[in-house]
Amino acid sequence: MVKEIESVELEKKLSNDEQIVLLDIRSEAEVVHGMLPNSSHLPMHLIPLRMSEFPKDREIVLYCRSGARSYHACLYLMQQGFSNVVNLKGGIIDWARNRFDIVAYG
Predict the structure, then answer these.
(1) Which domain, by its residues, includes 77?
(2) How far apart are CA 86 and CA 106, in angstroms?
(3) Are 85 and 60 contacting, i.e. CB atoms less than 8 angstroms apart?
(4) CATH number, domain at 90?
(5) Catalytic residues, which ones?
(6) Are residues 64 and 92 in contact, defined by beta-carbon separation less than 8 angstroms?
(7) How confident is the model at residue 8 (pLDDT cuts 50, 70, 90)?
(8) Mean pLDDT throughout 77-87?
(9) CA-based max dimension of the chain
(10) Is the distance from CB of 85 to CB of 3 less than 8 angstroms?
């Protein structure tokens, strides 16, 4: 079962400077409209090629537009032996609905 985090809880963790790896797995066309603060962009299709770079000792929160793609990406990573992956429930849509910061890409 995929671990999930609500936007409100994630925002609290980020405000407390918890050491979380935030990965935006949306496409280039989507991220130009903004990202969560302190997140890195890694399109979903590149995850298998780059997962060897993922830290095993820190929580990795994946997000997309609505939470569906990132949920499946978390499932995939769990099948590859990652136990520290978490899906942002509702994606950036829910984050924006809560009026949390969205920053420019790049």
Answers:
(1) 3-97
(2) 24
(3) yes
(4) 3.40.250.10
(5) 64
(6) yes
(7) very high
(8) 97
(9) 34
(10) yes
